[in-house]
Write a structure and sequence with these properties.
The protein has 212 residues and is of the alpha+beta class. 39% of the residues lie in helices and 28% in strands. The chain contains nine helices and nine strands.
Length: 212
């Protein structure tokens, strides 16, 4: 048999193509989740055994585990000791943190950007860890309001800063694809803690940073 015959073939399905290795055709990732997806496909009037859907239950199971991986992560784990003593008194702002989450009402995606700031109180944290904290809570079934508050509260607890501010701007596909079908709408939520809540000038400074 030639080497060509042993190579994985490319299966095109609609606008997508994937490498298909016949030896993985019977691969099982999570039998229970895959069974649920097969039942869902059948209830929708589809045939889960047709070529384009044959591996869909496996893909969906893997995707859902990734998109909800925040249930198995903690803020302590993602920060991993990356908090350092530093005599820094100026505001630290990380803006435009891209995130993706799933609405708990319809399990449809919502996505956007988080802007996070804190006022150090003798301690700073590695900047990438702030983005990771956002992901800990975004990768769960969520509502935007809770996500915003969870990020703020987690950073207040981890850093004991003078204050934390979080603003999230997101588009919700449950509004864009169904229901009112408003494709251009966005939702903005905020959570202010400590000095950001108590001092209008500090809050205004932060809001000015994220608008520029």
């Amino acid at each position: 048999m030639s080497d060509h015959a042993n190579r994985p073939r490319i299966v095109a399905t609609g606008h997508y193509a994937e490498t298909f290795d016949p030896s993985t055709e019977d691969e099982v990732y999570d039998r229970e989740k895959e069974g649920l997806v097969r039942n869902l496909l059948t209830s929708l009037g589809e045939n889960p055994e047709r070529e384009g859907l044959k591996r869909t239950p496996l893909r969906v199971a893997k995707a859902l585990d990734f998109l909800t991986s925040g249930y198995h992560a903690t803020v302590d784990q993602v920060i991993k000791g990356a908090i350092f003593t530093e005599d820094c008194k100026e505001m630290v702002v990380v803006r435009g943190i891209e995130f993706y989450s799933l609405c708990e009402h319809h399990m449809l995606p919502f996505f956007g950007h988080a802007h996070v700031a804190y006022l150090p109180n003798g301690k700073v944290v590695g900047l990438s860890k702030i983005a990771r904290v956002v992901d800990v809570f975004a990768r769960r079934l969520q509502v935007q309001e809770r996500l915003t508050n969870q990020v703020a509260d987690a950073l207040m607890e981890a850093l004991d800063p003078h204050g934390v501010a979080v603003v999230i701007e997101a588009s919700h596909t449950c509004m864009m694809m169904r229901g009112v079908q408003k494709q251009n709408s966005t939702t903005v939520s905020s959570a202010m803690r400590g000095t950001f809540e108590e001092d209008p000038r500090t809050r205004a400074e932060f809001l000015g940073f994220i608008r520029t």
